[in-house]
What does this fold into?
Amino acid sequence: MTPRILHVVTNVDHYAGFDVPTGLWLSELTHAHDVFASHGYTQRIVSPKGGPTPLEPRALKWPLLDASAKAWLADDAKMAMLGDTARPDDIDPADFDAIYFTGGHAVMWDFPGSAGLQRITRAIHERGGIVSAVCHGYCGLLDTTLSDGSLLVKGRTITGFSWREEVLAGVAKMMPYNAEDEMKRRGARYEKALLPFVPNVVVDGRLVTGQNPSSAKATAKQVVSVLSAQAS
It folds into this structure.
């Protein structure tokens, strides 16, 4: 059976307490979507509340707006997908082999507290599926528990946008929390690349995480690798 991927995007459009827009970092979705599409995978998009997902303005400017993201913006059908994402209650986790949490600072507000996303993630993981995230997407894994009450990330090796990258990006003062530290507090073994903003992917069994936007394609390729190994 063709593997099925569930992408997770945000509904948040501003930094809380600041008149600064944010949203989905588009290339983190498009790079992964392109990789999965090249393998013929079935894909769907969900968000914490369903409906439209806003786009991070900074990711839509040169040099961050690359060919993959431009192609998505020019595709009416794909843009319609972002205008009408599924709600967690619409999703049967049994329909998916992997979940992929996209990033953008916006997810720091609506991913962690979504019981619906936690339910889906737990179910996919416990039936042998893959849990993956890129950049701030790992915030969606902060509070996900397994059926035995333990945290999914406890004792697992993981990566995601680092605090150093927050500082260098000039947005640290607007952050609601330090995601890197929060992961460590939950018992995760957090790793990051020696240099900021370079591609970095960590694979811990069926947990696949990428550090930053430039890691999205490599993260998706690792998800494909794990899925292929499961099928062989």
User: Anything to note?
Assistant: DSSP finds eight helices and eight strands in the chain. The longest strand covers residues 4-8. The two ends are 13 Å apart (CA to CA).
